[in-house]
Specification:
mainly beta; Immunoglobulin-like; five-stranded mixed beta sheet; 1 helix; 1% helix
């Protein structure tokens, strides 16, 4: 049984503490005033979005998706739109400021969501503000950047040693059957289930095991799948870990590019956009034994930078997935970038 603690004796010069059962006096603020009560939440505007979430579906890398949302006035008085605020520059709504929505009526908002080079979920939102209300209507905007073959889940979360063994599903977004031609990055096994191993299918289950690389070695940054699906020569699945990627000395928008399929005996071109205006490239080199690289062109790029195009030529006899590290040198600085491609 826990015994109650006795009250400590008062320190000399201080008043004795009140009994434990004495009623507590309300706290007072400055000049003895009772502090204000906590504010209640501001009322939400009488608005509704239809659909409540703007789902723009699947987007190809580096492409934009578009959609519409109806903004309905569920109140009894007209509402004037005073602000339309997207959560990031990737989302562009049409200008609705100053538009009036009558009671029971709706107004259409058009949305454009920019895609990204890397596959995976794309999430944003748009806030609609109207006169007379301090709160806004928040409309989520979402899409998924994917190749014609997507992976579920879109990445492996191996942070803190989690999910070192698991299962991935590769499926075509249009339901067309395809084959997995090769895999790399870790120990992986296709789970065929019923049916012929040689028959194409619209969905494949693959188990992976990266425990061997986790013991004393870095985890693979990606699991790679080569498929025969059009537009999905290489499906790359990022492996998230605590190791931070090494940043290039010359900032670049995308440090790694997926070129997809390159026909045997031909070349592919990777264009990296560096955040350096009028960048003068002295050389491009690679340590890969599977390909040669050369500077193809430079031109003004996005964000007031320089687009550097590198021609990649697989060596004769090479087939399957190859990863090509590229060193781009400009004066005293160099940047390490990378391209992945399938050669068939």
């Amino acid at each position: 049984m826990v015994m109650p603690l006795a009250a400590a004796p008062p320190v000399e010069g201080q008043a004795a503490p009140p009994p434990a059962d004495a009623p507590k006096q309300p706290a007072r603020g400055r000049e003895g005033a009772t502090p204000a009560q906590p504010r209640t939440g501001a009322p939400a505007p009488p608005l509704a979005a239809e659909p409540p979430i703007a789902d723009l579906g699947f987007l190809a890398p580096n492409t934009a998706g578009e959609g519409t949302v109806q903004i309905l006035n569920t109140g009894s008085t007209p509402l004037t739109i005073t602000g339309v605020q997207p959560s990031c520059k990737c989302t562009t709504p049409n200008d609705l400021v100053g538009k009036v929505i009558e009671p029971g009526k709706s107004i259409e908002m058009k949305l454009k969501l920019d895609g990204a080079p890397a596959v995976g979920p794309r999430n944003s939102s748009v806030k609609i503000m109207v006169n007379g209300f301090t709160r806004a209507l928040d409309i989520p905007v979402r899409a998924e950047v994917t190749l014609p073959v997507r992976c579920v889940p879109p990445y492996v979360n191996a942070v803190e040693g989690k999910n070192l063994i698991g299962r991935l599903v590769l499926e075509s977004i249009d339901g067309k059957p395809f084959k997995i031609l090769s895999m790399s990055g870790a120990q992986m096994v296709i789970q065929y289930g019923d049916g012929s191993e040689d028959a194409p299918r619209a969905s494949w289950v693959v188990t992976y095991d990266v425990t061997g690389t986790a013991e004393g070695a870095a985890l693979p940054p990606y699991l790679l799948f080569e498929t025969d699906a059009a537009g999905a020569g290489v499906v790359d699945v990022r492996v998230r870990s605590t190791r931070a990627p090494q940043k290039p000395k010359i900032p670049v928008i995308e440090q790694r590019l997926n070129l997809g399929r390159v026909a045997a005996g031909t070349s592919g071109t990777a264009t990296f956009v560096f955040k350096l205006k009028d960048m003068k490239v002295d050389s491009v080199t690679t340590t890969s034994p599977d390909a040669t690289v050369e500077l193809a062109a430079t031109a003004p790029g996005a964000e007031d930078g320089t687009a550097v195009s590198v021609r990649i030529t697989p060596r004769a006899g090479i087939s399957g997935i190859i990863t090509v590290p590229i060193a781009v040198r400009a004066g005293p600085r160099a940047a390490d970038v990378e391209a992945v491609l399938s050669v068939r």
